[in-house]
C-alpha cells in the first residue's frame, strides 16, 4: 500500500482517467488490476483511482471503440480480461496528449506567472 | 435478463480477479490475509456499486428498461389489487364509452371512403337553395362542362343513384336493386380495381344507350349469384334490359355514402334507357340535376384554388345558359364537409355523443389521478428510497408513467369489452328496410386504434401530475415519516380541484342526459301528428319492369282501387314519401311569389310529398284551412298544392296563404296555387323542429315509385298477403317491397331509435355520476385517514363524535356544492346548445329540480360514509399507534 498521507492523494477526473488508461496500454495489453496498479505506481501513488471508477471507465472506452477487450489467461493460469488499444484509441490518445500539453502549459502560465517563479 | 448473463459473468470475473490480485499484492506487502482482503475491498469500493456503475456504462436498451419498468409496474399493481381494480374499471368505463361513441360517429360521419387515399377525394356540385339537406348535384351537361373546363382536378367522375328491377335470369321476377349510373372514369378516379374482370372503358360512356355492360358489387355477386366464378360475360337483366357482366367490384368497396351500398354499376350513357318518360332527357337537359360529382385535386392545388376556378366556370355557365343556370353556384366540398351538409342531424348527434363520452373519460381520468395522488405519500417513501440509492428522477418519473400506461392499457382492453357490448346495443339503430342501407357500427381497426390512442392520452392525463408530485419528495422528510404527516395544503388543493371538476362534469352529463330524455319524452308524448296504427305500407316501382309513365299511373290507380275493395279495408292512399322515412325523401325547391331571397339564392329547398286525394283522410292529418288534394286536381287542371302551417307562417306570416302562388325550381316554371293548409306534423324525426312541408297532387306530379297505405279495421299485417296476391294477379312480374305495418316502422323511428340514443346518453350520465361519486368518496376518505391523528387528539380532548362527523362531512359537502355550482353554470350553457337541437326554448326547470337535489343527496351520501367512519375512530388506539 501507499506510504503517503491521505490528503496528498489526488482523485482523478473522468476524462483524465480515460487518458491515463490509454497511455498505460500503449505498452501492450493488460488486465484491469495491472492498469490501475501501473497508474498508481507510475504517479508514485499520488494519483488514486476513485472507488469504483476503473471498471466503468474501461467499459466506456471499450464501448467508444478506443479499447478492445479479450479474454485470456493470466500468468497464474487464471481467466482474465485483457484490454488493448485499438488504432482508434491510439489516435485518440495522441489527440488527448497534445490537448493535455496545451492545457497544462496554459494552466501553468496562469498559476505560475514568470514573476512568481520559485515562490511556493 | 438472459441476454446480459454473459456480460454479467464476465464482469463478476473481472472484479474477482481484481480483488485477488490486490489482496495478493497486499499480502506480498506484509499484511495478514484477512486484512489484505479488506484493504483490497476498500480500494475497489462496493462491488455492487462498481457493477451498477459499469452496467450503466453498457447502457440498457430501451426495450430492457421498458421491460424492467413493466415488470416492476406489474408487481406494484398486483400488490394493490383494490386500487388497481377501481382504477382499471374507471378507465374501462371511460375508454369503452369513447370506443363505442367513436364507432357510432365513424359509422355516421367520420369513416373515410373505402378507396385508396380517401382524403384526396372531393365533391363538386351546385347549390342555390336555402334549407334542405345540402343538395350538391349537377346535370350531366354541367358535369361535362366542369370536367372539360377545370384544371384543378386530376379527374372528375359523376354518378347517379338509381333503382332497377334486377333479374339474374330472364323470366325471373325482378327484385328492386339500388345501384349507380357512373361515368366511364368512375373506378379510375377512385383508384378502385375490380376484383374480377375490368373497369369501364372510356368509350363505354360515350354513345347513349349502346354499351349495356355492368359491374356487380361483391355482395350482389356473392349472395345473388352464388359467387359464380364464371360470371364474366354472363347476361343479367336490369329493368328488363339485358346487360353483360364485365366485372365484380372488390368486397371492401361499399360505395361512396355512409349508409347506401350500391349493388351494381352501369355506364351513365345507359341512363336514357332506364327513363320511362320520354320527356326526361337525363343526358341533355341542363336542369336535370341528379348527378353527384367527385374527383381528386391535382397535387399542390388547394381547395380555395379549386373553388375559385369553379366559381369562374359556374359564372360562365350562368351567362351562357341563363334559363337553367341562373344563380347556380358551383362548390367544392371536402368529404367531411359534404357529409355534414348532407345530414346535419347525424353530425350533431355524433358530435354530442363524442363530447359526452369525452366528459365521461375526463371524469374517469380525474378519478384515477385522484387515486394516484392519494397514494403519493406512500409512494413518496418508496421513491425517496430509490432516489437515495441512486436512481435518477427522470427514471422514476418514467417508471411511474409506465405504471400509468400499463394501467391505461389494461383499462383500454377492458374498455374494448365495454365498447363491444355498447356497439351491439347501438346496432339497433339499423333501419328496417329492404334497401341496401346499413349503419355499420362496429369496433373495427379504426376504433381499435382510436381506443389505444385514448388509453395513452388518458395515461398522460391522469399519470403526469401524480408522477411529478410523487418524485418531488423531500428525501429526508419522506423517509422519516411514513406518510402519516399533516396533509399539505397545495397537494390537497389539486385533489380538491379534481373532485370539484368531477362533480361538475357529472352534473353536466346528468343534466344533458335528462334534458335529452325529457326532450324525447315530450316529443313522443305529443305524437307525430298523424295516424300510425292499423296501416299497412307497401311500395311499388313499376318503372323497374319498364312500365311507361301512363301505364305506371294507371297501375297505381288500379292497385289503390282494388285494395280499397278488399275485406276489412277502411281506406287506402298513395304517397311518394312515408313520414319518418329517412331513405325516401322528396324535396321541392320553391320560389314563393313576391318573396325576396338573399343574393345568390334562387329558391328554398324543403321536403315534400306527392299524394292522392285520400292521403289526408287515411293518415288523419287535419286540413286547417282551405281544402286537401282532390280527385279533380288532374294533370289538365290548374296546378295546386297543400302546404303546412309552418310554411304558411314562414312566407305569409299573419296573412291567409290560400290563393297565394309559388313556382318550382326556376323563375320560368308555371305558378302553383296553394289551396289548403295542413297541420304541421313530424316528417323525418320525432324530435325535429317544425319544418316547412308541401304536398302535391299525384296526377300533377306523376311519380315512378309510390307507397300504398292501407287502413284496416284489424291487424294490418294480415292484409299483406291478400294485397300481394292482388298485385300478382295484376302483373306477376311486378316487384313489391318494404311491406310492413306502419306502426312497426313508426315505433322503430319514433321510439326505438330515440330510445337507443336516450339510453346511450343516460348511460353516460349515470357512468359519469358513479365515477364522480367514487372520486368524492375517495377524497373524503383519504383526507379523513390523513387526519386520523388530529381527529384522535380532538376526540381525546373532548370533541364529540357529532362534531367530528360534521367537520369531515363539511369538507366533502363544500367540494360537492362547489362542483354543483360550477356544473350548474356549465349546464345552462349545455341547455342552450341542446335547445337548438330539440326546438325547445327557455329553461327546463323540471330537470334542474329533478337532478340537483338528487345529486346533492348522493354526493352527501358519498361524503357521509367516510365521515362517519372517521367519527368512529377510537382516540386511544390512534394515539397509541402514533
Q: What does this protein structure show overall?
A:
The complex is a heterodimer of chains A (120) and B (882). Chain A is of the alpha+beta class. Helices cover 48% and strands 17% of the residues of chain A. Chain A has four helices and five strands. Chain A has a three-stranded antiparallel sheet with strand order 2-5-4. In chain A, strand 4 (67-73) and strand 5 form a beta hairpin. In chain A, helix 1 crosses helix 3. The longest helix of chain A has 25 residues, at 87-111. Chain A starts with 9 loop residues before the first strand and ends in a 9-residue tail after the last helix. Chain B contains 27 helices and 22 strands. In chain B, helix 1 (5-28) packs across helix 2 and helix 18 packs antiparallel against helix 26 (845-871). Chain B is elongated and about 130 Å long. By secondary structure, chain B is α+β, with helices and mostly antiparallel strands. Chain B has a six-stranded mixed β-barrel with strand order 3-4-9-6-8-7. A six-stranded mixed beta barrel of chain B has the order 14-15-20-17-19-18. Chain B has a four-stranded antiparallel sheet with strand order 13-21-12-22. In chain B, strand 3 (153-167) and strand 4 (175-182) form a beta hairpin. The interface between A and B is medium-sized, with 23 and 28 residues.
Question: What layout of secondary structure does this protein have?
Answer:
The complex is a heterodimer of chains A (120) and B (882).
Chain A: E1 10-11, H1 14-24, E2 30-31, H2 32-42, E3 47-48, H3 54-64, E4 67-73, E5 79-85, H4 87-111
Parallel strand pairs in A: 1-3
Antiparallel strand pairs in A: 2-5, 4-5
Helix pairs in contact in A: 1-3
Chain B: H1 5-28, H2 33-44, H3 47-58, H4 62-79, H5 81-110, E1 121-127, E2 129-130, H6 140-149, E3 153-167, E4 175-182, H7 186-190, E5 196-197, E6 213-216, H8 218-224, E7 235-238, E8 241-248, E9 264-267, H9 271-274, E10 292-297, H10 303-320, H11 322-325, E11 329-334, H12 335-342, H13 344-374, H14 376-388, H15 393-426, H16 445-471, H17 475-480, H18 489-526, E12 535-540, H19 549-564, E13 569-575, E14 586-592, E15 603-611, H20 615-619, E16 623-626, E17 640-644, H21 645-651, E18 661-664, E19 671-678, E20 693-697, E21 706-712, H22 720-730, E22 736-741, H23 742-786, H24 788-796, H25 801-838, H26 845-871, H27 875-881
Parallel strand pairs in B: 2-15, 4-9, 6-8, 15-20, 17-19
Antiparallel strand pairs in B: 1-10, 1-11, 3-4, 3-7, 3-10, 5-8, 6-9, 7-8, 12-21, 12-22, 13-21, 14-15, 14-18, 16-19, 17-20, 18-19
Helix pairs in contact in B: 1-2, 4-15, 5-13, 5-15, 5-16, 6-10, 12-13, 13-16, 13-18, 13-23, 14-16, 15-16, 18-23, 18-25, 18-26, 23-25, 23-26, 24-27, 25-26
